[in-house]
């Protein structure tokens, strides 16, 4: 028993849970108890070990209509209500006991947690505190956190609303219940900062359910200082989601823009959806005033408003039979039956009817997009996305143009919509696959690492490459599922190669969105352990954009450092194309850089490019980075990079991305 006792005594969560805990063996005999149990029940741990527990044992379980044998074999926690407890000195009280079966070192044990604290031993005051606790438990969502802000208790009201289960929430950090945006992280930081100062925090909080749904609570967070070394925290929460939704509804019914008098974006969405439900054909016209911020810089608010009012007048005069809305600060959207040639003529109308401010004509033009329903797109969101994509192209050409979708636009948007639609099914059915591209070590000529690329071949869409798949997955929120698939598949492959005595490291590409999941590092390490793989067999490649964002988010840096300490290495991918920063190279656990293929493929074209690449290689080596060149395709490139002292090469001259089976044959 010394091993389990040492394990429990050293576990932070058990030391700081503010309730008595007693561990029983499969026969109901005491094997361990924490200090809270000793204080509350006035017992000594050494004297009760090996004795039958008087509070929870096979007989007590049966009296509470629950089989001890069933308790030993269930994975769920079992609650026993109104258990009579003796506090010492003849004082008794009633409490709830939570029992949870688990296996340690091949032996079956039952952990019993008594939902009371040391104050309960004070006799009559404990009854009053129990009544208070029960009243709070019945009226509020109640959460307890230890000194490290790990969840140690969640009451039934919280579990019911949030849809979490004890198994999924206990032991998790406070961040687990909140969103992962920068704003959410800063908000939770402010709560924790207040609590660490010993002060109560009160206010409204937006939280996340297990299924990703949002709910709002009135939160009171209270620090509980038992001693200088024993602190825990309580969250009392009241659901105010209905009130927030009502408030939002009241805000949204104010459909009129106060400056222009036009209906706003909320009303625009309603109108479009009504037209779609009625099956009406229409053109969705989106306009963005060119260089609006430049126009604003030379005017005050009153003049800016006058500009918008005058522009609105021209819209109303030209599009007299259309619905006109103000969709943003300098964006306007129309729902109209008019033909493309007439809509495009608005630019000429603006030239004929210029806007004068303080006696001076304003050189105002617009960039616009025409998207037809149902010919082009089939929902409000797709109409908006198509409009933005078209306007982006117009602005890249200099603006002052209203453009309809081209056949290429149709094909691209249709393919994107098809990918979004089919991707969910592909992930559910695990239709994606990993291909592996070899990377050769120039020092010994051996392939020591391969990079994994996710590929998807769909019967309708065809081949979808990472360059096409990943941006869409990031946009629609499926990037984490793809990341999990890559990790699981790569770890299984490492295990398979290990069994075949193939010694290879796999590098995988990771997105910043994946690392915003607080359980990313845990998931990755669990997969490595499940497949009996050493962490050093995995490398994670990140972009410079990822590195810049990670530098500003503590939770991401913490996960990266945790993985690095376990043995996982990190490489900076596409080096030389982003925002290279010496700062994040020092702060983040990066041990390798990969020079982007666009730079490498220009190595034979200019002497200056050769000097640049040589400088990048020497720079990497000066920081003890392993330097890899990507996209090497010719012998001339190969020899130049070898002469410059590049550590390893990747590219078609070495090998194309291939299946695991083909790679094994290629290596053989």
TrEMBL record:
SUPFAM superfamilies: EAL domain-like, Nucleotide cyclase, PYP-like sensor domain (PAS domain). Residues 201-252 form the PAC domain. Residues 416-668 form the EAL domain. Signal peptide: none annotated. Pfam families: EAL (PF00563), GGDEF (PF00990), PAS_4 (PF08448), PAS_9 (PF13426). Residues 280-407 form the GGDEF domain. It comes from the Bacteria. InterPro entries: Biofilm_reg_signaling (IPR052155), EAL_dom (IPR001633), EAL_sf (IPR035919), GGDEF_dom (IPR000160), Nucleotide_cyclase (IPR029787), PAS (IPR000014), PAS-assoc_C (IPR000700), PAS-like_dom_sf (IPR035965). CDD domains: EAL (cd01948), PAS (cd00130). PROSITE patterns: EAL, GGDEF, PAC, PAS. Coiled coil: none annotated. Residues 13-75 form the PAS domain. PANTHER family: BIOFILM ARCHITECTURE MAINTENANCE PROTEIN MBAA, DIGUANYLATE CYCLASE DGCP. This is Diguanylate cyclase. The lineage of its organism: Bacteria, Bacillati, Bacillota, Bacilli, Bacillales.
């Amino acid at each position: 028993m010394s091993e389990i006792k040492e394990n429990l005594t050293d576990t932070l969560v058990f030391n700081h849970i503010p309730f008595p805990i007693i561990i029983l063996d499969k026969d109901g005999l005491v094997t361990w108890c924490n200090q809270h149990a000793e204080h509350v029940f006035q017992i000594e741990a050494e004297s009760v070990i090996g004795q039958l527990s008087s509070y929870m044992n096979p007989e007590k379980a049966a009296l509470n209509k629950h089989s001890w044998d069933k308790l030993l074999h269930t994975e769920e926690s079992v609650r026993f209500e109104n258990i009579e407890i003796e506090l010492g000195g003849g004082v008794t009280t009633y409490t709830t006991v939570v029992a949870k079966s688990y296996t340690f070192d091949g032996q079956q044990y039952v952990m019993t947690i008594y939902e009371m604290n040391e104050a309960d031993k004070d006799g009559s005051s404990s009854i009053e505190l129990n009544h208070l606790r029960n009243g709070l438990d019945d009226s509020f969502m109640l959460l307890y956190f230890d000194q490290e802000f790990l969840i140690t208790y969640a009451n039934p009201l919280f579990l019911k609303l949030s849809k979490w289960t004890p198994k999924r929430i206990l032991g998790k950090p406070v961040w687990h219940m909140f969103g992962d945006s920068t704003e959410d992280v800063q908000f939770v930081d402010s709560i924790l900062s207040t609590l660490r100062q010993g002060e109560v925090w009160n206010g409204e909080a937006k939280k996340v359910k297990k299924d990703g749904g949002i709910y709002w609570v009135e939160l009171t967070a209270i620090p509980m200082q038992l001693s200088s070394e024993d602190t825990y925290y309580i969250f009392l929460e009241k659901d105010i989601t209905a009130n927030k939704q009502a408030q939002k509804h009241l805000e949204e019914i104010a459909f009129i823009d106060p400056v222009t008098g036009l209906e706003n974006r909320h009303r625009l969405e309603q109108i479009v959806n009504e037209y779609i439900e009625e099956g009406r054909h229409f053109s969705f016209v989106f306009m963005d005033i060119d260089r609006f911020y430049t126009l604003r810089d030379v005017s005050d608010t009153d003049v800016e408003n006058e500009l918008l009012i005058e522009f609105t007048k021209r819209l109303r005069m030209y599009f007299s039979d259309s619905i006109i809305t103000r969709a943003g600060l300098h964006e306007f959207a129309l729902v109209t039956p008019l033909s493309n040639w007439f809509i495009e003529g608005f630019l000429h109308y603006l030239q004929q009817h210029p806007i004068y401010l303080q006696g001076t004509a304003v050189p105002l033009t617009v960039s616009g997009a025409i998207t037809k329903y149902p010919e082009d797109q089939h929902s409000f969101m797709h109409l908006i996305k198509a409009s933005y994509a078209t306007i982006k192209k117009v602005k890249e050409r200099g603006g002052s143009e209203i453009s309809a979708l081209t056949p290429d636009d149709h094909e691209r948007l249709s393919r994107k919509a098809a990918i979004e639609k089919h991707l969910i099914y592909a992930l559910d059915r695990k239709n994606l696959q990993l291909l592996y591209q070899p990377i050769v070590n120039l020092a010994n000529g051996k392939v020591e690492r391969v990079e994994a690329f996710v590929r998807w071949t769909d019967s309708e869409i065809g081949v979808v490459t990472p360059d096409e798949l990943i941006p869409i997955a990031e946009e629609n929120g499926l990037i984490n599922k793809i990341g999990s698939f890559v990790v699981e598949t790569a770890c299984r492959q490492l295990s398979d190669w290990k069994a075949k005595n193939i010694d290879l490291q796999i590098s995988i590409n990771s997105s910043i969105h994946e690392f915003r999941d607080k359980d990313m590092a845990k998931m990755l390490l669990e997969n490595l352990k499940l497949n009996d793989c050493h962490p050093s067999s995995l490398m994670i490649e990140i972009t410079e954009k990822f590195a810049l964002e990670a530098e500003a988010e503590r939770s991401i840096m913490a996960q990266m450092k945790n993985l690095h300490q376990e043995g996982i290495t990190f490489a900076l991918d596409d080096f030389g194309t982003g925002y290279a920063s010496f700062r994040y190279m020092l702060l983040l656990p990066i041990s390798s850089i990969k020079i982007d293929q666009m730079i490498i493929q220009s190595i034979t074209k200019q002497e200056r490019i050769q000097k640049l690449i040589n400088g990048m290689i020497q720079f990497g080596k000066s920081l003890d980075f392993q330097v890899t060149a990507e996209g090497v395709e010719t012998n001339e490139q190969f020899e130049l990079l070898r002469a410059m002292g590049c550590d390893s090469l990747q590219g078609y001259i070495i090998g194309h991305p291939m299946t695991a089976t083909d790679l094994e044959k290629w290596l053989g």
